[in-house]
Amino acid sequence: MPYLTSSNDFRSDTFTTPTKEMFEVVSSSSIGDAVYDEDVDTLQLQQKVAEIFGKEAGLFCVSGTLSNQLALRTHLLQPPSSILCDFRGHIYVHEAGGLATLSQSMVTPVIPCNGKYLTVEDIAKWYIPDDGDIHAAPTRIVSLENTLHGIIYPIDELLKIKQFCVENDLKLHCDGARLWNAVVASKITDPTIYGKIFDSISICLSKSMGAPIGSVLIGDKAFIKKANHFRKQQGGGIRQSGILCKMAMVAIESDWHKNLQYSHDLAHDFAKYCENLGIPLECPCDTNFVFLDLEKCGIDPIFLSTIGEEKYNVRLMGNRVTFHYQISRKSVENLKLAIKEAVEYAKEHPFKGSNANKIYRAIEK
Ligand SMILES: Cc1ncc(COP(=O)(O)O)c(C=O)c1O
Ligand SMILES: C[C@@H](O)[C@H](N)C(=O)O
């Protein structure tokens, strides 16, 4: 099926497509060489994102993976070192082992005791102190994700973790690919709170915000200056990035609160529908993701995505159903028909296969 629009694409919010307005602004974008900090639209976007989330400076990156990897590399001075994160964290599961190769760092993947997000108790239990034990790779960074699997991090827990990091000389990074969603769902009126808590934040513009390309890494000036050095080293120093930054600025200047709330409302409605069908959720539906425990209902994810595409014109991948502002209500109705058929089919043909190819891990209950 030719890829037409994202209105029926529930695979990820990375499938959001540029708007007509984004294409229209391209012709008036600045055309300076961003490697020399001479591109006005790039400088403006970097500063805008830094100001929104309360940091001194920003650095445009072509992907969230690059933004995360630069942040963590910049915080690290020399091996041996460890980075503590949630065992489901993108930096650990989905960034191709970049921390090992680009940062020569170990990772301590931790399963949250509360089944949702790491608490300060989880971190205190699993962090590796720099106490002179030559067997160890001491923890240098705690890297959190907000949201992670769509789960919101409570501010009071973040503040406790921040305090622990300060007391133990640890850097605190946030993979904020969907921090915009957390702001809307938590009804945060002043997002600079996150800049007060985290030493660095990677903010994606290409997911729920709908820009075609780009993330911005934010931090203090000295940190961003060093991250820029690593960005050049890793080939991320791009030239006329004003084209991309102007498009991204359209997303920031849009009514993103309304857009993201729409996607959250669709997700919450679908989550309720699935639970009423007897499909448990793998984790709470706080924002735009619905993680279904298909295994518990004997539903084959391949069967679901196949009938979804061939019979109901919806695009699905695995057990994560993603909502974004370009999803149409008609597509949600089609999605509900597809999941209903999959439930009925599973009653007669329960799927007992392996979920080894599951790219989104769940916490065993
Ligand atoms: C939580 C999270 N962090 C980082 C990334 C990486 O972003 P990118 O795909 O632009 O590298 C993603 C991907 O969507 C993500 O879901
Ligand atoms: C697959 C993963 O890298 C991507 N960030 C997503 O959420 O779809």
From TrEMBL:
Signal peptide: none
Top class in the EC scheme: lyase
GO cellular component, one term: cytosol
InterPro entries: ArAA_b-elim_lyase/Thr_aldolase, Low_specificity_L-TA-like, PyrdxlP-dep_Trfase, PyrdxlP-dep_Trfase_major
The EC number(s) this enzyme carries: 4.1.2.48
Domain Aromatic amino acid beta-eliminating lyase/threonine aldolase: 9-295
Pathway given in the UniProt record: Amino-acid degradation; L-threonine degradation via aldolase pathway; acetaldehyde and glycine from L-threonine: step 1/1
Reactions listed under catalytic activity: L-threonine = acetaldehyde + glycine; L-allo-threonine = acetaldehyde + glycine
Cofactor(s) the protein needs: pyridoxal 5'-phosphate
GO molecular function, one term: L-allo-threonine aldolase activity
Domain of life according to the entry: Eukaryota
Keyword set, alphabetical order: Lyase, Pyridoxal phosphate
Pfam families in UniProt: Beta_elim_lyase (PF01212)
BP term (GO), one: L-threonine catabolic process
Modification N6-(pyridoxal phosphate)lysine occurs at: 207
Gene3D superfamilies given in the database record: Type I PLP-dependent aspartate aminotransferase-like (Major domain)
Family to which this protein belongs: Belongs to the threonine aldolase family.
Name used for this protein in its record: low-specificity L-threonine aldolase
